[in-house]
Amino acid sequence: MNWYNISNSVKNKLSISIDEEIGSFGIDAKSFIDEVKVSGSKDIELTINSGGGSVFDALAIYDFLKNSSYNVSVKIEGLAASAATIIALSGSDLPVMSENSFFMIHNAWMPVVSMAGMNSDEIRDYKEELEKQAQLMDKINLKLAKIYANSTGLELSTIQDMMKAETWLTAEEAKEYNFISSVEVAMAIAAYASPKELAKKGYKVPFNYVNQLNNVNMSEKEGLLDQLKAYVSELLAPKAESVEEEAVEETVEESVEEVEEVEEEVTEEPKDAVDVESIKAELMDSIKAELTAKDSELAELKKELDKAKASRKPLEAKEDVTNPEAKVEEVDELGAAILNILKSSYKS
Length: 348
Description:
Layout: E1 4-8, E2 14-18, H1 29-39, E3 43-50, H2 55-66, E4 71-81, H3 83-88, E5 96-98, E6 102-105, H4 120-152, H5 156-164, E7 167-170, H6 171-176, E8 182-184, H7 195-200, H8 209-214, H9 218-235, H10 242-266, H11 276-311, H12 324-347
Parallel strand pairs: 2-3, 3-4, 4-5, 4-6, 5-8
Antiparallel strand pairs: 1-2, 6-7
Helix pairs in contact: 1-2, 4-5, 9-10, 9-11, 10-11
C-alpha cells in the first residue's frame, strides 16, 4: 500500500498520482524523491486527489520539485486540501483543476491529548511545551502562507486570513484567486474521502461538497423512491369492506406503477444536475391529487351502497291459509280407507 503511484507513460514522461494521505503507510517524502530520481525522466505529469497529510513531507516534495530541472505539470482531480495544495503548487506552472474539484487551505494543526494526571508544576511544564509547539506551528503557517502568496500574487495578510478561516474553494473560485491556471471539464470522479472522513481530520466540509462532486447521488434518488412507495402503500392501507379493498388495491397498483415509471426516468444518468426536491414535490402532488380523486370515488360508492341497503325491505310473513281441521279430516279419511283395504284383504 502506498499513498502515491509512479509509472512511466508515453514519450518517457513520468506519471505520478497522489491519491491518499501524504506520508501515510510509513512511507515518507524521501521514498517519493528517490523513486523520481532513479526514473531518469525529465518530464513529470502529477495528478493530485488528496485530502492532505504530513506538512513536512509536502514541503520536502515541494522544495525538491520546485528547485529541480524537471518539467512538472500538475492537475487536480477531485480534491487538493491542506498539505496537498503545497505539492499542487510545485509545478513549472500553476496547476490545472477539473471543474468538480475543491481546493482547501487552512492553518496547520496537530492533535493535543493528555490523559495523564498532573500536579501544578507538571501542568506549567506542559503549558510551556504546548507554547513551543504553537510557535513551531506559527512558523509552519507563515512558510505555507508565503508559498501561497508567491504563487498567487495575493497579499500575505489575505492568505493568512483565508488560512485562519479554513477556506474551501471551487475550481472557479481557485481560478479567481489565481491558485490554478485553468478549469477543465471533468468526467465523473470520486472524492478522496467522504465528508465523515474529512470531518475526522478536522476539516469543515461545505454542505454541497458531495453533490458538487457527483451532481446527484443516484442511491439517494433510489432511496427516495422507495420511501415514496412505502408512503403510498401505508396511505392506501386496505379498508374493511370488500368494495373498498378492491378500489384501494387498484389505487396502490396504479400509484406504484407511476412511481416505477418515474424511477426509470430518474435513474437514468443525468446530463445536467437534477433537482431532487423538485422531482419529489411534483411526484407527491401527483399522488395526492390521484388519492383525492380516489377518495371521492370511494365516498360516492359508499353512499350508493348505504342507499341500496336502506332501500331493501324484508318480506312480510304470509299467513298460513291452510285449514288445520281440514288437514285432520283428510288424515282421518285416508286412515279409514287404508283400514278398509286391509280388512278386505284379510277376509279374502
